Amino acid sequence: MRSRQRAFSAVMRLCVKCLRVGRRRRFRLAWRLQQLWRYGHLCLGSLLYNSFTNSDVVLDSLFEPIYWLVDHVTRWFGVTYPPGWICWHLAYGHWNLLMILFHYYMAITTPPGHPPQAKSNTVAVSICRKCISPKPARAHHCSICNRCVLKMDHHCPWLNNCVGHYNHRYFFSFCLFMTMGCVYCGISSWDIFREAYAAIQRLKLLEKETLQVAANQTYYQTPPPTFSFRQRAFHKSIVYLWVLCSSVALALGALTLWHAALITRGETSIERHINNKERQRLQKKGRVFRNPYSYGTWANWKVFLGVDTHRHWLTRVLLPSTHLPHGTGLSWDHPPCVTEPRTPLLAI
């Protein structure tokens, strides 16, 4: 009996010791956390303490990033620019960029249109020698795509796509708005370009003078460069971008004018060569050639852009639009926007 009581008392004493040890450990952990909190609070207070600090100073410090952003944004636009000029830059620049991206995306993703391979009631003017299938009016075979394309103009490597009946408007609009964007960038950045070019000329002159001075001095007496690498790269980038925009504006502008002349005459690049040969052939016989797909200068533009009403000049020309062109590319009926009827003829 006594042995049982001793064993029971020993177990109870062991439990009491375990409880005391657990309490001590929890107390030590809480005490350490409290000491760390006090130490961190003291360090933060010592770093931020200032006898002149008050609520106004704290508020100004919180708004300092906003002040920095406003100062740099106004510096980008120019300090002397009026609010109207800034609004014009924001509106026109974003509109032009939107039109470029939209028409480029549509030009590369929209199929130009292909004649049906299966037998159908499509009116054909000839048989393609490579496809061995009926070829509708104004359709031509593309050797790169290895298919016939409806109203084919050319195969554009920059689009990786043929320019045909369904994406001809997207291609021309992209060229037009891209040219307008390059001209806009060139004109609006003319002052920045002149300053950067003048800075580069001053840099070359100072480097030349520095080399002449350093030739008569030791290595340790050579003065440091006047312009940093960042300043040189900035000025050269401005000059490079301006020259690039001007070059693209000239090259792409010439291409846009060429296609605008073709649209005015109601023909494509391929039909231009075919019509010239036919015009010369008929001229020798004393006859006059007439393009069966030309409805006049103004009507040709309305047919190409898909303008049927006055409202379409805004919704289909000045704003992004995915409307389909007139006709299916398989047959060429009289467009609804043309008032003067023409005698329907087959394509050459």
Q: What is the typical, i.e. mean, pLDDT? A: 81
Strand runs, count: 6
Shape: elongated
Distance between the termini: 125 Å
Low-confidence stretches: 343-348
**Percent of residues in helices:** 55-70%
Strands of the largest sheet, in order across it? 1-2
Query: DSSP helix count?
Result: 10
Strand content: under 5%
Radius of gyration: 39 Å
Q: Major sheet: size, sense and barrel closure?
A: 2 strands, antiparallel
Give the helices and strands as they follow along the chain.
HHHHEEEEEEHHHHHH
Question: What structural class results from the helix and strand content?
Answer: mainly alpha
Describe this structure in words.
This protein has a domain at 96-187 and 243-317. It has ten helices and six strands. It has helices at residues 2-48, 55-62, 64-77, 83-109, 168-188, 190-214, 229-265, 269-284, 297-305, 312-317; strands at 126-127, 134-135, 140-142, 147-149, 154-156, 161-163. The strands form three sheets. It has a two-stranded antiparallel sheet. Strands 3-4 form a two-stranded antiparallel ribbon. A two-stranded antiparallel sheet has the order 5-6. Helix 4 packs antiparallel against helix 5 and helix 6 packs antiparallel against helix 7. The protein is elongated, with a radius of gyration of 39 Å. The N and C termini lie far apart (125 Å). Residues 343-348 have low confidence and may be disordered. One of its GO terms (molecular function) is protein-cysteine S-palmitoyltransferase activity.
